[in-house]
Specification:
By secondary structure, the chain is mainly alpha-helical. The protein has four helices and no strands. About 60% of the residues lie in helices and about 0% in strands.
Length: about 70
Amino acid sequence: MAIPQKPPYHLTFGDAVDVWLRHWNGEYQHHIAASYGVNPGRVNDVLKARKHAGSEQVAASKRRAA
């Protein structure tokens, strides 16, 4: 009997903004990934602008506003 698997989590645009903020605060990619339950490669996709284009600019504006 197969055990039903939970579908994988996909980082949202809002998650990507948070990834940038956490990265700039010095948090390691594998720690960020673990908090979302994703492979560290997904965090790297955000940081290398392969996913969620524009999230870096939104994060930068949030960082300036804080």
